[in-house]
Structure formats: C-alpha cells, structure tokens
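Per-residue structure
===
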Amino acid sequence: MGVAKGEVVVLCGPSGSGKSTLIKTVNGLEPFQSGEITVDGISVGDPKTNLFQLRARIGMVFQNFELFPHLSIRENLNLGQMKVLGRSEEASERGLKYLNRVGLIDQKEKFPHQLSGGQQQRVAIARALAMDPIAMLFDEPTSALDPEMVNEVLDVMVGLAQEGMTMMVVTHEMGFAKRVANRIVFMDQGVILEDCSKDEFFNMPRSERAREFLAKIHQ
C-alpha cells in the first residue's frame, strides 16, 4: 500500500478494525512487528531514524484536539515551531497565517476551554499546518464533536484536499469520503479488505464485509 503526493486516502471500517493503529504507525506512534513503512525516503521502523524529526514533517490531528489548556491559542500554535523547528519571530507569523486559514484569527488570545469543540479542532489543524508538513494524518477528527460542529472541521479538510495536501484520514464521514477521497482503504479485524478508488468502493465493493458495512451506513 502506498500513498502518492497529493493523494487523499480515507481509511474506514467498523470500530476496532485497526484503522487508528495503522495510521499511527506511519509516524511511529504505534510500533509494528513486520513489514516496512517509508515516508519520503525515511524508514519509520529503522532504530536510527529520529522519530521526532519525522513527526515534525507529518501533521497529526487526533480525536481530542490535544491542545495545551494553559496556553493561549497563539501560544499553542507557536510552541511546536519554536521547540522543534527552532523558529522565533517567524513562529508567530506562520501560526497566525494558518489560524486565519481556518477562520479563527479573532480567537488568537483565548484559551482552549473558551472555544467550542469544532473551533479547538480547527486550531489543532492550524497548529499541524504551521509545521509545514509534507502530509497530514487525521485520526477520526470529528468523532468527539457535536453534530452541528462536524461540518466546520470537514470544510477545512476539504479545502486542504483541494489545495493538494497529501492526506490519510480515518473517518466514518462517508459524505466527506465521497467528496474528496482518491482511494478508500476498508479494514476489518486488522486486515485490509479493500484498497480501491472511491467509485469502486461505493459502487462495486468486492468483499461481502464491505457490502454489509455500506448497507448499514445507507439505512
């Protein structure tokens, strides 16, 4: 399985099928026992690989935002750039650029608890983008949100896809998958059962398990 530059791959399947585990292996957040994962020529499983440097090149957005509660939004955006990339004045400039990109520039001096869940997730996306990643990983970024907040996050992700960002997305949002995915990877019980274009997956799934999954979604 490979992901080309500019490609959007959606990982879907029932809960517990291994989607989140798979996506976390890409930047070394989960260990793997066999096989090889290479990101931009870097071997993730090589003991000599500096995983901190690798993660700086791969943006990761989690279910639960992972913002620092004691820091302002501006400070949350600056911290990783300063600690990992060694930026100083440029950190604030780039942080505010991406905060504006996700439509939250007016929230820069607030703290995470003062924002809605959807706003916090958009801040988390802006923080990842400020690190100038070569790819973005999303691990069910809307699953912890109230239903009316889901679209504000998905809209940002759609925009990134349209701008050519390389993305791997674990999600149950099949409308998003139909709109922007180049490929669908369907998993069940730790096994990839489908790896195909979105048209093939939604119109002609090969496995009975995928057909069952789609039938339940469309009920």
Notes: Residues 26 and 39 are 7 Å apart (CA to CA). The two ends are 31 Å apart (CA to CA). The mean pLDDT is 91. The longest strand covers residues 191-197.
